[in-house]
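User: Quick sanity check before I run a bigger batch. Here is a single chain. Can you write out its predicted 3D structure?
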Amino acid sequence: MIKAEKIMNSSLKNVQKFSAMLLIALFIFSPVAHAERLKDLATIQGVRSNQLIGYGLVVGLDGTGDQTTQTPFTVQSIISMMQQMGINLPAGTNLQLKNVAAVMVTSSLPAFAQPGQLLDVTVSSMGNAKSIRGGTLLMTPLRGADNQVYAMAQGNLVVGGVGASANGSQAQINHLSVGRISDGATVERSVPSNFTQDNLISLELKDADFSTASLVVDAINKRFGTGTAAAQDARVIKVLGPSTQNRVSFMAALETLDVKPAQTYAKIILNARTGSVVMNQSVSLDDCAVSHGNLSVVINTAPVISQPGALSNGQTVVAQRSTIEIQKEPGKVLKLQGGASLNDVIKALNAIGATPQDLLAILQAMKASGSLHADLEII
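Assistant: Done. Predicted structure follows.
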């Protein structure tokens, strides 16, 4: 044991950035469960944002617009706009405009948005314009999925990612084909909502789980009375709300309700490109032996019986204790004792200098052998 401890202490000094990142991830997924607000676990059915999209023109560019010979839709849009304004161009006119760019305008219409409310919009070039910096978006209708106009956008573009040093000797230009207009759209039509018409409110869990749904129902019924909530399935929970006058205060109290979610299923995420490994507290191991190059991992689990003292009225407890033996080179063996935890295996592998690729291969072998009880996802 003394020799193993010396090996661990000397090796930990050489653990690189991968080990530090992994340990941070392990601390984040600690086995301690904390209560979360209901608004962080679920959303309200029907209370959501709606995506808007529109096609428009950006003018006033400094010669960095679309090359009209290669983007005929830009020329068609300009001619159509001028005709709507009462300007008819002679037949056969060849427009050579460099200060105009065809763009797509996108935004998000939040829940309960009312006419007159301002929205931020994102403007993206769809042609071959070199830059839309300094341009002005002309009035553009923004439509929803039903092809109805819900907002109108117009304004001066602000393009980020452009900077220069104090003396002008260095310049940094990142992405000039996308800009943003703060408060650049005005809502013209609201989305109908039945939130205030029906007393039955539907909560949708962000992650479907029968155990969490049951815990949420218990917490709501304990707070607002028996029969207030009932789970429809693993995701949808029906809540009987009060009358329209008290609906807002009821939802405010419902969203701030603390619920301790159920323990999720065991999962390990492996990034094959960076070597990052993230796991949750549900991951466990059975007995196994893995050999990978000059690395070998052996995990042995044995029951440990703890008997109560005399006249203590206690119960005999049977626990599992695992011995993890990792060997990188002949004569260099690292032994760990404790619960059957993958956390201990990864820490020990990092301590003896295993590479991220070695770790990925070992975890895949453990999963294939059936000793690793977790869903293995490789990204």
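The chain has three domains: 2-33+265-378, 50-187, 194-259.

User: Great, the batch can go ahead then.
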